[in-house]
Structures are given as C-alpha cells and as structure tokens.
Design brief:
The protein has ten helices and eleven strands. With 315 residues, the chain is α+β, with helices and mostly antiparallel strands. The chain folds into three domains: 135 residues, DnaJ domain (Helix Hairpins, Orthogonal Bundle), CATH 1.10.287.110; 65 residues, Sandwich (HSP40/DNAj peptide-binding domain), CATH 2.60.260.20; 80 residues, HSP40/DNAj peptide-binding domain. The strands form four sheets. It has a four-stranded mixed beta sheet. Helix 3 packs antiparallel against helix 4. The N terminus is likely disordered.
Length: 315
C-alpha cells in the first residue's frame, strides 16, 4: 500500500526543488524586489547594450549574459509573470499547474474526510504531480503528459531608417514562413516574443515561442540615443554671420531651418517631435538636435582674401 503524503509535504518538497534551481532575475539586472517597472526597463536597456554580442565579438560570455538579461526582462517586465516569479522562483511557469493540483487535492481530501486537510495524497498521485511538473509520462496508466514546444530564436538586421517606420517582414523559421509586423521605434538589441511560433508541443502541449533579437545598424550621419536623434550640419561662414535658411535631410524627409544672424560654431537647435518614434506609442516622437559646424572656406581667391582683410580692418 502507498503511504499518504499530505499537500503540506508536497509544498515543502516543491519549494526545496525551486530553491535548488533558483535563478535570481533581480540580481541579473542589478535590482531588488522593490524595483519599479521603469527601473526594470532602464536596467534592461543599459545591460542589453553592454552585453550585446555584436558589441562583444571576442567575449564568449557576452551571449550567455545577453540571454540571461533578456530572460530576466521577459519575466520582470510583465506584472503577472513577475508576481508568479516572486512566489515560485525560476519555475514560475508551473505556477498554474501547481495551484490547480493544490485545489484538486484539497477538494479530493475534503470529500474523503468530510472537509479540511485530514485526507492526503497517494504516492501514485504524488508521482503523477511531479511528472506533470518536471517531465515524464504515465502512459501505462492511460495518461500522457503534455509537453510545451521548444522556444526558437532568430535575429533581424535593420537599418536605422527601417526601424523608423512600422513595416512587415516575412521570416523563415525552421522551414515555416512567418509574416510579422515590426513596430516603429525598435531598438538595437531589443527582443520581441512572438507567442506560439516556436517548436510544436508534444501530446497536445502548447507550441513554444519565437524570440526575435533586433540588430539596428548605425546611421552614417544621424546618431540615435533612445528616442532622440542628433545631427551635425555644416554651415558656411556667410550664412552663420548674416543668417538665412538651410535645408537638412532627416529620417522623415527634408526640413527647412532658419539660421539666426551671428550664429556661433557649435550652436545647438532642438526640433521637438522630429526625433525617433516612441516604441508602441503611435504619434509620439523624441526630439532632433541639430548642431551647427561652421566651415572655414579654403582656396580663396585674391579678391576674396581682400574682402576678408577689409572686414578685419573695418573695426
């Protein structure tokens, strides 16, 4: 005969298992449990840039660190997942199964004993529970455990102008074509999850997920920092001194700027709302900062030199 194992013992064994296999996502991001959603987002962005494999081609640990950072962000940035993680640790994915098993055990023991936890759980049921949680099959008893499919990963390379606008792309993953929409504003190193597009599940289990890492190339002239853009524009001496109007090229087309008279070298002009689109916030943009670089003319003619001489001596 099997001995009886009450739900309390099941809980203790489960907790010990989770502690032995615990991965501290807060520690990975350099945070504590009181961290806000903004703290999580800021820490993820900082570390993702630091450990992105493209920026660490000779660092063998960078890829592992990058994967851990993304895994931590995937959980801690989602309020529901974070709640389960705080309660169950690394194996928060099994929270629903465990809670359902607890409820079934409570109902079962209550019906046998007239209420409360005076009943228990047979070793056979106890074994079934851990097999459903951590793998295995009870096909001999007419049951088969459902297994979740494998998660897939892939990378998409974009130019900065590509990341500026929402557009569609077709990916080929494990022989299957997947049509996805890439939102405007994706960042270099950002990871997006496409649910259900990973490997197929077994025995009726759910498919895995597809994780896409975006690699956004630098622009030759425009620098991006978050949602703000920075551009240096050459300005001739005459326009700098007398003022005028110039046309500059931006990611959103050409823009005309009025230059004030006596503009100094290094003068900065901020164009509000002309920066990069804010990810998943349609109609919101960062700013574009233009820095003027005054170009000193070279190869002057004698006549031009004389004019500068007259200008210098006019004081």
């Amino acid at each position: 005969m099997y001995s009886v194992l009450p739900i309390q013992i099941v809980s203790i064994i489960l907790i010990k298992y989770l502690i032995m296999n615990f991965v501290d996502y807060y520690k990975i991001l350099g945070l504590n449990k009181s961290a806000s959603a903004k703290d999580v987002k800021d820490a993820y962005r900082k570390l993702a840039r630091k450990y992105h494999p493209d920026l660490n081609p000779n660092n063998e640990d960078a890829k592992t660190n990058f994967q851990q950072i993304n895994e931590a962000n995937e959980v801690l940035s989602d309020p529901e997942k974070r709640k389960k993680y705080d309660q169950y640790g690394k194996d928060w994915q099994h929270a629903d199964e465990f809670e359902k098993q607890q409820q079934q055990q409570s109902q079962s023991s209550g019906s046998r004993s007239g209420g409360g936890f005076s009943g228990g759980q047979s070793a056979g049921d106890f074994s079934d529970f851990f097999e459903s949680m951590f793998g295995g099959s009870r096909s001999g008893r007419g049951r088969q455990v459902k297994y979740r499919g494998e998660d897939y990963t892939t990378e998409i390379h974009l130019e900065l102008i590509d990341a500026y606008k929402t557009h569609k792309q077709t990916l080929t993953v494990n022989g299957n074509n997947i049509r996805i929409t890439i939102p405007a504003g994706v960042e270099n190193g950002q990871i997006i999850k496409i649910a259900g597009h990973g490997g197929p599940g077994a025995n009726g289990g759910p498919n895995g997920d597809l994780y896409i890492t975006f690699s956004v190339a630098n622009h030759p002239d425009i620098k991006r920092l978050g949602n703000n853009l920075y551009l240096t524009v050459d300005l001739d001496v005459c326009t700098a001194v007398l003022g005028g109007e110039i046309t500059i090229d931006t990611l959103d087309g050409k823009v005309k700027l009025k230059v004030k008279p006596e503009t100094q070298n290094g003068t900065k002009v901020k164009l509000k709302g002309k920066g990069f689109p804010v990810y998943k916030n349609e109609g919101q943009f960062g700013d574009l900062q233009v820095t003027y670089s005054i170009k000193i003319p070279t190869n002057l003619t004698e006549k031009q030199k004389k004019l500068f001489e007259e200008l210098r001596n006019s004081d």
